[in-house]
UniProtKB/TrEMBL annotation:
The organism's place on the tree of life at top rank: Bacteria
Chain positions recorded as substrate binding sites: 34-37, 87-90, 100-103, 127
Protein's gene: rpiA
Species, as recorded: Zooshikella ganghwensis
Catalytic activity: aldehydo-D-ribose 5-phosphate = D-ribulose 5-phosphate
Name used for this protein in its record: Ribose-5-phosphate isomerase A
Length: 225
């Protein structure tokens, strides 16, 4: 019997809980991502909420879900270190370089991931690709720079599309960039971030995931590089 995508997401969320559990202490604070897979993880984490201190969230939506379970949410500025950051992805290659930002939370996700000692990515098998870029690359942009950034992206060979009606938690807008075949993720990540007006882009290659827990029809696979 085949397992549907939500069941795969739930399975990797439970696997992530098992992955971090042995390292969790009463004063631990855990970095939490955004999206449907991260939501499954938040719900799983709630089952051990008395065994750690609290969480740092990468979005207002995740903060609300954590609080609804009675899990304290901390401002990242008040936290010295995070052992783990747990989050989903829109795509991962075999080097665990990612595209993220389908839920428009990429900037805060990248910040929390940067602080964490270990980034555990949780995803169903549809997210694993050989080359990043089939999923349109989200770029968070300061609103007044939208057209300028779009023109610069066209020069790089991308096809930017304004994600209408979406405002990020930081008050910015999103351009989704189509038709990029991202063969040098680190270079493109840096190049896009160098465009004036870009807050950040959804390539996570300069700081890739450390572990990918991949939900497959044959069970959860643990991938490291
Ligand atoms: O980057 C993200 C949000 O900005 C998510 O991790 C990504 O969109 C995957 O979402 P889902 O777990 O719902 O498939």
């Amino acid at each position: 019997m085949s397992v549907n995508q939500d069941q795969l997401k739930q399975a990797v969320a439970l696997a992530a809980l098992e992955h971090i559990k042995p390292h969790i202490e009463q004063d631990s604070i855990i970095g939490i991502g955004t999206g449907s897979t991260a939501n499954f993880f938040i719900d799983a984490l709630a089952t051990i909420k008395n065994q750690f201190d609290g969480a740092v969230a990468s979005s207002e939506a995740s903060a609300e879900r954590l609080k609804s379970h009675g899990i304290p949410v901390y401002d990242l500025n008040t936290v010295n270190s995070l052992e783990f950051y747990i989050d989903g992805a829109d795509e991962s290659n075999h080097q665990l370089q990612l595209i993220k930002g389908g839920g428009a939370a990429l900037t805060r996700e990248k910040i929390v991931a940067a602080v964490a000692k270990s980034f555990v990515c949780i995803a169903d098998e549809s997210k694993l690709v050989d080359v990043l870029g089939t999923f349109p690359l989200p770029v968070e942009v300061i609103p007044m720079a939208r057209s300028h950034v779009a023109r610069e992206i066209v020069k790089l060979g991308g096809d930017p599309q304004y994600r209408e009606g979406v405002v990020t938690d930081n008050g910015n807008v999103i351009l989704d960039v189509w038709n990029l075949s991202i063969t040098s993720p680190r270079d493109l990540e840096a190049q896009l971030n160098n465009i004036v007006g870009v807050v950040t882009n959804g390539i996570f290659a300069l700081r890739p995931a450390d572990v990918l827990l991949l939900g497959t029809q044959d069970g959860v696979k643990t991938i490291t590089v």
